[in-house]
Model the fold of this input.
Amino acid sequence: MKPKNESNADLDVIVVGAGFSGMHILHEFLKRDYNVHLFDDGEGVGGTWDKNNYPGARVDSEVWIYQFTDPQIWQNYTFTEKFPTWRELKPYFNFVADQWGLRPHMTFKTRLEGASFDENECVWHAKFNDGVTRRARHLVLAMGSTTTPVMPKFAGIESFKGESYHSARWPKQEVSFSGKRVAVIGTGASGVQVIQEASKTADHLTVYQRTPNLALPMGQERYTRDEYAKMKPLIYPAMAYSRQTFGGFPYDLINRRWNDLNESERNQMMRQNWEQKGFRFWLGAPADLFFDEECNRAHYNFWRDETRKRIKKEHLIEILAPTEPPHPFGAKRPCLEQWYFDLYNQDNVDLIDTNTSQIERITENGIVAGAVEREFDCIVYATGFDNCTGAIGALDIRDGTGRTIGDVWDEKYLTYLGKMVPGFPNLLFTYALQSPSAFLNGPTAAELEGDWVVNVVEDMSAKGIRRYDAKPDAAHKWAERCNDVANMSLLPKAKSWYMGANVPGKRPEIQPFIGGQVAYRAALNEEIEMGYPNLVLERASSATAAAE
Ligand code: N01
Done:
């Protein structure tokens, strides 16, 4: 239905970000005949998959759920791997853009820099780096949670004369590791993937590890066209089930108390999950994995003992899979690996533990760690992101008192449902602080959060509401709920990006809502069904009346 409120805005809605959620939201608004336009600072569609083009970058959700649920898309697209790389995901997003007719409604290489809200008109004036200010009634930020790269502040970092890259700002032209001395700093999901690729061709690879990654075996599979076609009838049921599970995966946390299981049941459960590979050992475990120290330790021990079987260099065993867990298992995001623990058996690979050999500085020729300088041709910084708050927090979008969203979050992590910040009316966001997106399969989160955004905007238009804003007390309660759930869990015991602890100077506190998809969906639905009790609504007529 076309929006009812006419105003002086150029657009009904501006959407920022062309990843899963931005594209979904754009599509849904276009279906409803809204005057909507999407802007993205990248070169094309795909969001994270447009920018994270480092060698080996691949998704770690099974591909049959890592898709939009629209049958027009999944019935007509063929993937060749269970966990495809960006090289297959980029064409997928282009296919979607064409199928949905999105191209005329998207502009790339155009970055949102800031916005101000005109209280008289109830219109956002959004400023972009092309110098143009565009006006819209609703501003929707779908900028992703892993968007803003973090570079370490090593002394001398600028002096290095070789090639150096952050994993999330990889050059579009091919970078070859072949015959080079390569260093990778960081062993998170990005690091593990770059390391695996570099190990194949680098003359020598040196990995600088601060915390071991409790990575899980991926269980990669490759498909011919016919094999993939045979799986298609299974795709929709898997997607449908994924909408009901904790993490948006086609399996769920097991609802049995660890204490109620005997030794043999526990071992059998862990063994089965391990053998099915992927994230089952994490997000298909007993829910107690996240709450019960004993359950968590049993999982760590299982992971450690299985992983150690693959490490042949004696001196690396304790560094890669220590006797004592570096943090509770799964409290820091694991990733999926293919030959990660095997590659350390190669002669051309070294591992440096930066806890005992701290990185002191970067020189013209390499890295000094533990008083030893090693020379490199290429340094890869796989040092992560300012997750959840980085992208939105950096925008120059101000409330009535002149504070940016970043200023608000510097003081307190505050959102209503991970969707709005009080004081910033008619502004909605997805995939950011205090939503469960960090714990959810990407497209599942994108559709769940995106549908809510579209429904709210449509409802506001239908009801003749020209200004809507989250009530501060509702936002405080949501922040409290996010913290309460986290504090019951083992997550605060890990120094992770979930806890905002990976960025020097960032206030460590839980970033996502970790109560799971089902609880979150219920909270979103309740707000709409109850008629928006937690939003301050201003009708067009009452505003006019007030002005008179
Ligand atoms: O970033 P990270 P990422 N000195 O923050 C190390 C998603 N993702 O880009 O653990 C030395 O996880 C840091 O060490 P430590 C996914 O959600 C998904 O890898 O803080 N080391 C860590 O090892 C993921 O979780 C996919 O002690 C330093 C690494 O750098 C999220 O993005 C692929 C350091 C950063 O790891 C982020 O992953 C890629 C320093 N000064 C990403 N500073 C898939 O779907 C940082 N480190 C597969």
